[in-house]
């Protein structure tokens, strides 16, 4: 009996037999998510706009024993890009704009308002995404989980002195 319970409990922490689609999986957060999900046993399909980059990642993942396939996708037209931005903005409530981190003044403001005093790393986001895909998280519904180093404790808008 104890062995059956242990086996059932362990299966909550694996994604074997499941398939995931991760767009933009060759860089940043997308790349980290592909690795997290594949490492937990999922079969993953991803895409990239750059064939060379995709092929390099696919070779690396195959060498790690991950089951990852990929395809080249092109979001080159303005309407396609706008649709993608709209989709991403709706998923993240308009709060995600990685491109702003290239702006030193903005980055300094973010760091000053973040209790951990640094921006997050892709692995710190991908681990939460992977957890929410696991059967172990099946009772978690309708939540907003901030992976922000404590920044939301200060609100999203700068205070004025």
What do you see in this structure?
With 161 residues, the chain is mainly alpha-helical. The chain folds into 2 domains: 19-102, Rossmann fold; 122-154, no CATH class. 44% of the residues lie in helices and 10% in strands. The protein has 6 helices and 3 strands, in the order H-E-H-E-H-E-H-H-H. This is Tropinone reductase homolog At5g06060-like. GO terms for molecular function: oxidoreductase activity. Pfam families: adh_short, adh_short_C2. InterPro entries: NAD(P)-bd_dom_sf, SDR_fam, TR.
Under CATH, the topology of the largest domain can be stated as Rossmann fold
The N- to C-terminal Cα distance equals 63 Å
Helix/sheet category? mainly alpha
What's the level 1 CATH class of the largest domain? Alpha Beta
Anisotropy-based shape: globular
Spell out the CATH superfamily of the largest domain. NAD(P)-binding Rossmann-like Domain
Number of strands: 3
| Cα Rg | 18 Å
Which band does the percent of strand residues land in?
5-15%
The SSE order reads: HEHEHEHHH
DSSP helix count?
6
Q: Give the overall pLDDT as a whole number.
A: 81
How many domains in all?
2
Helix content: 40-55%
- Low-pLDDT ranges: 1-6, 91-96
How are the strands ordered across the major sheet? 1-2-3
CATH architecture of the largest domain: 3-Layer(aba) Sandwich
Major sheet: 3 strands, parallel
């Amino acid at each position: 009996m104890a062995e059956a319970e242990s086996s059932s409990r362990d299966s909550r922490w694996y994604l074997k037999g499941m398939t995931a689609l991760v767009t933009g999986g060759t860089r940043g957060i997308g790349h980290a998510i592909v690795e997290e999900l594949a490492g937990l046993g999922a079969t993953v399909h991803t895409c990239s706009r750059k064939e060379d980059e995709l092929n390099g990642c696919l070779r690396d993942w195959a060498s790690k024993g991950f089951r990852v396939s990929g395809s080249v996708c092109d979001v080159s037209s303005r309407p396609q890009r706008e649709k993608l931005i709209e989709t991403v903005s709706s998923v993240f409530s308009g709060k995600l704009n990685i491109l702003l981190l290239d702006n030193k003044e903005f980055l300094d403001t973010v760091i000053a308002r973040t209790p951990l005093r640094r921006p997050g790393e892709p692995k710190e986001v991908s681990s939460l995404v992977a957890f929410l895909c696991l059967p172990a998280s099946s009772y978690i519904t309708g939540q907003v989980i901030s992976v922000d180093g404590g920044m939301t404790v200060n609100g999203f808008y700068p205070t004025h002195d």
